[in-house]
């Protein structure tokens, strides 16, 4: 008798259970442990399950889902509770053919807080045939909303997983907290010969889909949209050295990457070991295909390739709807090569020595003039002016930076000279002095801390040094000082907006 494939056997043996209208992680875990293989945990629609610990699959073929597999807001919710150290709602590692379907999985970051730990949904390991479909996965407390983890075992890889039709995000936020970066991935995939298809990822602040090697896997028809207000580092990333940099057989096709409103995505598709902020010494390798992807709106660089070998085909990707990057981002902190590409609005970039062969790319690519790494250098647009009320500005030459404006960096130098430096990148790397106070002091000290620029309570903008001497002052009783990206550069004003003094009067 011909043996029945395991997947079919597990599917056939799965029994229908009455749905649970209330549950906790403890009761669900008890049912999974006692039920054994093929146990189905069916939650009634609109059920909310408060979690103080993860739900853990314990045997092959188990499933947790909402009864009837709804696709709307009636899907049952797994909700991590505040006051716990739990970051994962479900752990499906190391169990074949387990399924997570039609749930709302909520990390509850706004109330429970950000916390280092495992992803909100942890699947994978040395398994085959896992299935994650039709879920809402949002607000992870940790580094990723969903992690399909590798096994670390050559003879027992994570393989043949399906991630389909999920709605993911928001995931993380911009900035740094007490435990480090607050950003998070949407989907983090380390599984081989797998399919990630028809998912919608919105508001991932690290990578929308991060491909950690995953040889033989396909990433198809996914839509990745930025937060409406925050920066996302990448849309689809192929930059990490997992599987020793092996991306052979990976297909990234028919995806849509969109930056919206005041949010943006720095890198649409990042390819190679030299593109991200932490370059690796060895190249990633293919052959890999990236085709028929669509880029729209606020994307800093649509595709960047550097640190690749072993075959690459990049064809028929549509960049026609990408916005001019200077409309939504600022390159002031970028290196000169990255800044030049940004200012020239070159969305497709390649460094040929870092791309290897065979290589087939579409004609719109711009060749980088030198080996440039780290394209994660864009910030939100800087203001064209910044104002301070009386008593609210005090900066020493040790701190240096007074304000950063669009195209202009204002700093107090170690000799007491207040200067405005061009940062547009059009003048020898952006170092041209646009204006300067032209007043100096020998009393700033070796670290510059003796010289202080302040707009004092009386409404005077002045520079004092370590001896207590006033090097210069505006002689005003103003209400605010305004730093501008154009002449007259620095202005002290009265409450009604009347101009009392400009920095040009020091000349």
Automatic annotation (TrEMBL):
Superkingdom to which the source organism belongs: Eukaryota
The entry's keywords: Signal
Span of the signal peptide: 1-17
A family per Pfam: Beta_helix
Record SUPFAM superfamilies: alpha-D-mannose-specific plant lectins, Pectin lyase-like
Domain Bulb-type lectin: from-to ranges: 386-507
Gene3D superfamilies: Bulb-type lectin domain (2.90.10.10), Single-stranded right-handed beta-helix, Pectin lyase-like (2.160.20.10)
Entry-linked InterPro entries: Beta_helix, Bulb-type_lectin_dom, Bulb-type_lectin_dom_sf, PbH1, Pectin_lyas_fold, Pectin_lyase_fold/virulence
Protein name per its UniProtKB record: Bulb-type lectin domain-containing protein
The organism of origin for this protein: Dichotomopilus funicola
């Amino acid at each position: 008798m011909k043996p029945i494939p395991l997947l079919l056997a597990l599917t056939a043996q799965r029994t229908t259970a009455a749905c649970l209208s209330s549950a906790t992680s403890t009761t669900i875990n008890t049912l999974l442990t006692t039920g054994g293989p093929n146990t189905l945990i069916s939650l009634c629609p609109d059920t909310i399950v408060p979690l103080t610990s993860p739900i853990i699959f314990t045997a092959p073929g188990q499933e947790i889902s909402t009864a009837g597999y709804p696709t709307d807001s009636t899907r049952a919710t797994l909700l991590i509770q505040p006051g716990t150290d739990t970051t994962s709602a479900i752990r499906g590692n190391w169990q074949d053919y387990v399924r997570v379907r039609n749930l709302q999985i909520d990390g509850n970051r706004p109330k429970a807080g950000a916390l280092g730990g495992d992803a909100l949904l942890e699947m994978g390991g040395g398994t085959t045939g896992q299935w994650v479909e039709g879920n809402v996965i949002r607000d992870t407390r940790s580094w990723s909303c969903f992690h399909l983890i590798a096994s670390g075992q050559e003879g027992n890889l994570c393989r043949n997983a399906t991630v389909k039709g999920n709605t993911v995000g928001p995931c993380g936020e911009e900035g740094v907290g007490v435990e480090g970066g607050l950003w998070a991935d949407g989907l983090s995939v380390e599984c081989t010969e797998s399919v990630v298809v028809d998912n919608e990822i919105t508001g991932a602040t690290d990578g929308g889909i991060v491909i950690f090697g995953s040889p033989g896997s396909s990433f198809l028809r996914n839509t990745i949209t930025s937060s409406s207000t925050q920066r996302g580092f990448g849309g689809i990333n192929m930059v990490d050295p997992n599987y020793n940099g092996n991306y052979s057989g990976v297909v990234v096709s028919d995806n849509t990457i969109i930056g919206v409103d005041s949010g943006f995505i720095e890198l649409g598709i990042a390819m190679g070991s030299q593109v991200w902020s932490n370059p690796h010494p060895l190249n990633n390798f293919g052959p890999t295909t990236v085709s028929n992807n669509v880029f729209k709106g606020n994307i800093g660089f649509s595709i960047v390739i550097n640190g690749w070998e072993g075959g690459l085909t990049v064809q028929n990707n549509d960049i026609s709807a990408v916005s001019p990057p200077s409309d939504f981002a600022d390159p002031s902190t970028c290196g000169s090569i990255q800044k030049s590409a940004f200012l020239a609005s070159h969305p497709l970039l390649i460094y040929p020595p870092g791309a290897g062969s065979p290589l087939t790319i579409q004609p719109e690519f711009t060749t980088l003039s030198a080996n440039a790494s780290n394209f994660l250098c864009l910030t939100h647009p800087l203001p064209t002016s910044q104002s301070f009320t009386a008593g609210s500005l005090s900066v020493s030459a040790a701190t240096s930076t007074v304000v950063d404006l669009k195209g202009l960096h204002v700093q107090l130098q170690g000799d007491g000279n207040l200067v405005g430096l061009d940062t547009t990148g059009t003048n020898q790397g952006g170092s041209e002095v646009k204006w300067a106070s032209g007043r100096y002091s020998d009393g700033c000290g070796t670290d510059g801390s003796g010289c202080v620029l302040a707009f004092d309570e009386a409404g005077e903008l002045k520079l004092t040094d370590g001896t207590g001497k006033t090097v210069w002052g505006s002689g005003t009783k103003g209400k605010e000082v305004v730093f501008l990206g154009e002449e007259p550069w620095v202005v002290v004003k009265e409450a009604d907006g009347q101009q009392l003094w400009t920095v040009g009067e020091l000349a």
